[in-house]
Amino acid sequence: MPKFKYPETPTVDQVDDFHGTSIPDPYRWLEDVDSPETLSWIAAQNKLTFTILEQIPARARILQRLTALWDFPKPTAPRKRGGRYFQMHNTASRTRMSYSLKNRYATKSGSCSTPTCCRKMELSP
């Protein structure tokens, strides 16, 4: 097994007191996911990770198979709000959920990507 040079992960002197028990938290700085330091650390970790993953001969086939298995509709249970029925859904190929809505007696439905968009939709029976 080859030896990898992992990115350095700095530590800080953070200690929390929980009901009289001191708990060190040297990696607290990583909780700020938008800080330049954290983003830089994530980029370095990803660079190492993908260098390793790209060496797997069957990686493309595995990714293709997993994508095929995961790419199916994932609807939530319908919810009634203000006389309309809302349902969220997506597939593996979509990174965000979409909303569908129907009026109680509507014969058609609409689809949008945000709740604000759904509120503006007019569905008549």
Provide a descriptive summary of the structure in words.
By secondary structure, the protein is α+β, with helices and mostly antiparallel strands. Among the domains are: 15-55, no CATH class; 79-120, no CATH class. The chain has helices at 36-53, 59-70, 115-120; strands spanning 15-18, 21-24, 79-81, 84-89, 98-103, 110-112. A four-stranded antiparallel beta sheet has the order 3-4-5-6. It has a two-stranded antiparallel sheet with strand order 1-2. The N and C termini lie far apart (66 Å). The relative contact order is 0.08. The mean pLDDT is 81.
SSE layout and pairings?
Layout (H helix, E strand, L loop, with lengths): L14 E4 L2 E4 L11 H18 L5 H12 L8 E3 L2 E6 L8 E6 L6 E3 L2 H6 L5
Antiparallel strand pairs: 1-2, 3-4, 4-5, 5-6
Counting H and I runs of at least 4 residues, what is the number of helices?
3
Enumerate the spans where pLDDT stays under 50 for 5 or more consecutive residues: none
The spatial strand order of the largest sheet comes to: 3-4-5-6
Fraction of helical residues: 25-40%
- Structural class estimated from helices and strands: alpha+beta
Number of strands: 6
- What portion of the residues fall into strands of 2 or more residues? 15-25%
Radius of gyration: 23 Å
> What is the end-to-end distance?
66 Å
**What does the overall shape look like?**
flat
> What does the average pLDDT come to?
81
Q: How do the SSEs run, as a string of H and E?
A: EEHHEEEEH
